[in-house]
Give the backbone structure.
Amino acid sequence: MLFETSLFHSYTPDVAEVLETTVGAAQDGSRLDRALGELFPDHSRSSLARLVEQGCVRVDARPASKPSQRVEAGQRIEVTFPEPRSSSVEAQDLPLTILYEDDDLVVIDKPAGLVVHPAAGHRDQTLVNALLFTVKDLSGIGGEIRPGIVHRLDKDTSGVMVVAKHDEAHRKLTEVWGTEQVQKEYLALVYGHPSSDRGTIDAAIGRDPRDRKRMAVVPHGRRAITEYEVAERLRYVSLIRCRLRTGRTHQIRVHLKHLGHPIVGDPVYSGPQYRGIPDKRVQRVLASLGRQALHAERITFPHPSTGRTVTFQAALAGDIAGVLQELR
């Protein structure tokens, strides 16, 4: 055994627990934050580095100077883990549909129009505000009682989202996100009819050189791959099922525009193209949507505790389903 861990509870009111361990041969000469990540695998390296900076880590009974300091085999390390502090974000009673919940994670069906994180212009009324009110057993992410957002959906994209309840679940999910172990499928209503019923879009995505607020297919961007299949062909539009093999910003929106079939209602990548449709009734139906017709339908990933592959699905959002019914 390279190291041993002992645990005792501190009686300091603001301290959850103190853990002590010994640097093993495998960590000899490593940076302190890297060694801590190996010795305390239930915590993320970034959160442990913050504890060093906050003066919560001692090496051979002396306060650690910085995360980058080197450690030697045999040194004793003591880490004080404070009680998770209350989030600075206000808990708010907002409508929230929970598809599944256990001790590690919660899966929700995010409605269109809901921003995920508080930010400039959206200080409250966000998904995080709603989760803080609805989920009662958050144990802390990065030392703060808050939900661990594993991935994001754009404000006007609806559908299934996964949220971690504690640091270990967040770390494990983040490690596999973006790998082939995670499969994400979306439904998109697009203008026109693709020439092929299925295909793969392999086109790099980066900042649009003409508008830095947008993304675009560019020669030197990051590789992005989207598989698509036509689920239904309707008058002037098609329902497309997309499977992401990479996770770039606005990937589906940019790739479908690149394919020549932008998403209906997308204010950034398509605009009001419905105005060019000769059928006035179809124009009115598409104009009624009021947001991009993109829905995260299904997600598959390994559960952070059991490792078992799990799949969750959110039924197509009512507004998009209503438009489809009208067009049929």
Notes: The radius of gyration is 24 Å. Confidence is low (pLDDT under 50) at residues 1-13.
